[in-house]
Design brief:
By secondary structure, the chain is α/β, with parallel strands linked by helices. The chain is built from eleven helices and seven strands.
Length: about 350
């Protein structure tokens, strides 16, 4: 039985092995992912982002418990958690400590927690996060919670991957402007004011609500989810989704039921408005572009002699070449006969 077939049959050991293959970028991992791809597209991907210390791990922990033991008596969902931790720029290591905050989920066969190191990737996610999410999707996990590293304003890659993005803010993290800076606020489908029992919660909520009112006077389309017009799916004006602001105290589980309800409402909105298909198409296109860049970069690195590369780097360091000129020379060395014609002025 192939690795992909074992995963479709529910083999957790095979699932663990494939996740490692994908993180390491092996040929076995790519082959199994291709075999599993037709079985993807069914899970609800929920991104959880926000600054460090906002309580994202506790929030994810209680959300997973809510989906596993629904208070309304609905059938429990299978939940996968992808927790991305920052990699040290000095040692290259990562603590992967989010699993420690989710100990009470251990032993539940309906929950699978995978910690990943960012491995220097910017934007809050690891390079292999999309592939890992696809494996969980194919393995039958209905809800996939993706917790980012907590890098701050630049952490917007999650909006390109998740169907629903939660942005977690807390009182006491600085002035009100800190909570409403551009970049992180615009990607929010739901705003979560965690640690809502702390002083300053009312002030932060007022600031967030004011910014939402200013940003949504007309129907708003997120920059990271542009409409895609095709013959089968023409672009059309969509009803506006105004991100709700929900208060939680994740350590106590307060507000989790209301948050889960808002997530369900957003999923229903995406499907009814056609935005689910548009976001899915855009997500796959972004993933395709990322894979294409990585492959082209790898082929270029394999094609250029290291001595030649170091020579050009030394020329830049000595100010004999500008970075732009160096790029032209390196690209002209790529692909042999298929390379663009050289500029005589650079030789």
């Amino acid at each position: 039985m192939s690795l992909a077939a074992s995963i479709l049959a529910g083999d957790r050991l095979a699932l663990t092995r494939l996740l490692s293959y994908i993180e390491n970028g092996t040929a076995e991992g790519r082959a199994a992912l291709s075999e599993l791809f037709p079985y993807t597209g069914r899970a609800h991907l929920i991104g959880v982002t926000g600054p460090p210390g906002a309580g994202k791990s506790s929030l994810v922990n209680h959300l997973a418990r809510h989906y596993r033991i629904p208070p309304d008596g609905t059938p429990p969902r299978r939940v996968a958690i992808i927790a991305v931790d920052p990699t040290s720029p000095f040692s290259g290591g990562a603590i992967l400590g989010d699993r420690l905050r989710m100990r009470d989920l251990a032993g539940d066969a309906g929950v699978f927690i995978r910690s990943m190191a960012s491995r220097g990737s910017l934007g809050g996610l690891a390079t292999a996060t999309a592939g890992v999410a696809q494996v969980f999707d194919a393995a039958g996990f209905e809800t996939i919670l993706i917790e980012t590293v907590g890098a701050g304003q630049a952490e917007v890659d999650i909006a390109r991957l998740a169907h629903t993005t939660l942005v977690v803010e807390t009182p006491g993290a600085g002035d009100d402007i800190q909570a409403i800076k551009a970049g992180i606020l615009e990607i929010a489908d739901i705003l979560v004011l965690n640690k809502a029992d702390q002083p300053g919660a009312d002030s932060v909520e007022r600031a967030l609500r004011t910014m939402l009112e200013l940003a949504h006077p007309t129907p708003h389309i997120f920059q990271d989810h542009p409409p895609v017009e095709t013959a089968a799916m023409p672009a059309s004006p969509q009803p506006m989704w105004l991100p709700p602001i929900l208060r939680t105290i994740a350590t106590r589980g307060t507000g989790i039921a209301e948050l889960a309800s808002a997530i369900a409402q957003h999923a229903a909105y995406l499907r009814q408005s056609g935005e689910w298909q548009r976001r899915e198409r855009y997500r796959l296109e972004a993933e395709l572009n990322t894979a294409l860049r990585e492959i082209l970069m790898a082929r270029w690195q394999a094609s250029i002699p290291q001595a030649r590369y170091r020579e050009i780097v030394e020329s830049v360091a000595a100010r004999r070449l500008s970075p732009g000129e160096a790029v032209e020379k390196l690209l002209n060395s790529f692909g042999g006969a298929h390379a663009p014609p050289a500029d005589p002025a650079l030789d």
